């Protein structure tokens, strides 16, 4: 069976990954006033953050439309027997709901929407594993079962310089975010049950990053299986690469990847966010 793997732009894969792993994506959009830009199509990440610096009002974001999904699915139906469509958490975006709605209306190909429960690097782990299994000729059921396993096995943590955007966008509760903002702390944030929640209250960004590493170190020490990890950054590449370089030296058994937070996630995290995600590495088992 020929299975197409579809995701959305918040997986933030690079062009090589999309091409070599034969992954298709539908873009989300960021909105500046009346101007709408599809991320990684109409605007690059660098262009987005530079535009934010000079914007009078914070941008917003929007999910792909039903039409976007319909067009992509229809373009794949002649070359594939089924589509597995994996998207960012339904608790923070309506992207999955739109994919689900279109999937039920497709007549010439079966579409299987998957709510990753995550975003960014956490979503990317599921997408790349699905693509790897599809290449091996695994069934739709086998792939979806693996994605459910990954969802429960993936950890994701990040710290932002300013919580304002997350609170205004409704991605972090006003109660939790307001207290942190008032006290001027840098909380380590995580995702649980598809939602962004505070994990620990830290006074400085440096200590918050160190806390993420401590959590990672504990996982590496206690894990009975190989681990893969991804460091992500929001327009602070040098800081992100320094962090990953130090991790690579300390944890040589881990397979590391480096990624970024693009416009749609960047709308909420703001510039300067640092994070990391890790999970089981099935490719080495």
TrEMBL record:
**InterPro entries per the record?**
DegV, DegV_C, DegV_domain_contain
Specify whether rRNA-binding is a keyword of the entry.
Answer: no
> Where is the secretion signal located?
none
One GO MF annotation is: lipid binding
Keyword Acyltransferase on entry: no
Keyword terms, alphabetized: Lipid-binding
Q: What does this protein do?
A: May bind long-chain fatty acids, such as palmitate, and may play a role in lipid transport or fatty acid metabolism.
Q: Which PANTHER family is this protein grouped with?
A: DEGV DOMAIN-CONTAINING PROTEIN DR_1986-RELATED, FATTY ACID-BINDING PROTEIN TM_1468
Could you tell me what this protein is called?
Answer: EDD domain protein, DegV family
Per the UniProt entry, what species is this protein from, by scientific name?
Alkalibacterium pelagium
């Amino acid at each position: 069976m020929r299975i197409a793997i579809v995701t959305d732009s918040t997986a933030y894969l690079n062009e090589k990954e999309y091409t070599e792993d034969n992954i298709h994506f539908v873009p989300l959009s960021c909105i500046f006033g009346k101007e709408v830009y599809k991320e990684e199509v109409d605007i690059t990440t660098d262009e987005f953050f530079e535009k934010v610096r000079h914007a009078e009002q914070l941008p917003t974001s929007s999910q792909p439309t039903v039409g976007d999904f319909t067009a992509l699915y229809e373009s794949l139906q002649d070359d594939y027997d089924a589509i597995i469509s994996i998207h960012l958490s339904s608790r923070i975006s309506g992207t999955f709901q739109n994919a689900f709605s279109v999937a039920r209306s497709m007549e010439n190909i079966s579409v299987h929407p998957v709510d990753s429960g995550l975003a960014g690097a956490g979503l990317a782990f599921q997408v790349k594993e699905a693509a790897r299994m599809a290449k091996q000729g695994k069934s739709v059921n086998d792939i979806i079962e693996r994605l459910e396993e990954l969802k429960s096995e993936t950890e994701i943590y990040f710290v932002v310089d300013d919580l304002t955007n997350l609170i205004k966008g409704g991605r972090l509760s006003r109660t939790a975010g307001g207290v942190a903002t008032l006290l001027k702390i840098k909380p380590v944030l995580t995702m649980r049950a598809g939602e962004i929640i505070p994990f620990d209250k830290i006074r400085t960004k440096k200590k918050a990053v160190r806390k993420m590493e401590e959590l990672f170190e504990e996982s590496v020490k206690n894990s009975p299986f190989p681990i893969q990890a991804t460091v992500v950054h929001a327009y602070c590449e040098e800081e992100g690469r320094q962090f990953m370089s130090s991790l690579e030296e300390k944890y040589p058994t881990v397979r590391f990847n480096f990624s970024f937070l693009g416009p749609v996630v960047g709308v909420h995290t703001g510039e300067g966010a640092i994070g990391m995600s890790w999970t089981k590495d099935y490719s080495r088992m």
